[in-house]
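Q: What would this chain look like folded?
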Amino acid sequence: MKKLQILGTGCPKCQKLAAQTEAAAQAAGIEYELEKITDIDAIMDFGVMMTPALAVDGEVKVVGKVPSVAEIQKLLA
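A: My prediction, written as structure tokens:
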């Protein structure tokens, strides 16, 4: 099971990234757990300075933008 983490304060871009990540995971047919990390200190612990960000299994893959569902699927593969 993949652990997908959305790092962000809950802004519209963060919400869009969460929705697109879920759509990508479902389209790819993978088992996943989605966690939204909104605590600034926790986000900084990842070394992330711009939100939104996406971490897959604890590794930051995207920072400061919302990739397309297809781009997220490639990151999850």
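Residues 51 and 64 are 5 Å apart (CA to CA).
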